[in-house]
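Chapter summary example.
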Amino acid sequence: MEKFIKTNGVELCAETFGEAGDAPILLVGNTMLTWHDDLCARLAALRRYVVRYDLRGTGRSTTADPEAPEYTLRDLVTDATGVLDALGLPSAHIAGFGVGGWIAQLLALDHPARVDTLTLIATRPTAPGPADPDLPGHAPELMAHIMNPPEVDWTDRASVVAFMLESARHLSGRAFDEAEARENIERVHDRTPAAPDPGKAHRADQMAAAFAALDSGPRWRERLGAVTAPTLVIHGEDDPFFPPGNGRALAAEIPAAELIILPGTGSELPRRTWDTVVPAILRHTS
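The structure predicted for these 286 residues follows.
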């Protein structure tokens, strides 16, 4: 069931799965649909109280201009603690995917008492922008697609879906499932509400566009040795956006972190990986 949470001066749309008395897991992505309904339901069936939400400026949360966001990465971290507060959760297991991984890392560093365990999926230890010299950057073929995109009309569903499907193909590993990718893209599109600028809203929901313009504040990679939460790092072997060297760096720099490399997987969490990912998360959060 979706619920609207007022916190930190904004309204965030959140949804829960399972029983409130079970071990809570806060899933942080871009929109709540970063985490598939069936994946959430599977975790809930195994006695986890699953919480997912739309970041501000995405989905049904408070709208914002993704090209000039009037909030910072640290505001998004405070928003996450506000979701926990609204649900009466002193702490939770935190899982962050992609851009959500930055929020999850800062939660663990700046609010350690709120983080029971940390799971980082398809992310890296540095904010948006050029990669550190020792970290692998975005794959050239992917950047060519992103920087020289075909003409896309962000107000037209068919145009958005076609562009995002091609992007998903570039982001995926060797076993690209076009039908699964299309379903995910269409669900995000159809859930994006009418906004003052619908084109910008669809870009924000589909591509986490605001992060390119966001004030990310001070670096935190050098602080990762202070993370106290037990940490699990999950990374796709074929991830072209944040190649696996980024996940390996996280696992090396966070004390006692466990690393799982998903074979044939890109910057994604497709259904075929769940038989590995779900048991790993359950074990990690037990």
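To summarize the output: DSSP finds nine helices and eight strands in the chain.
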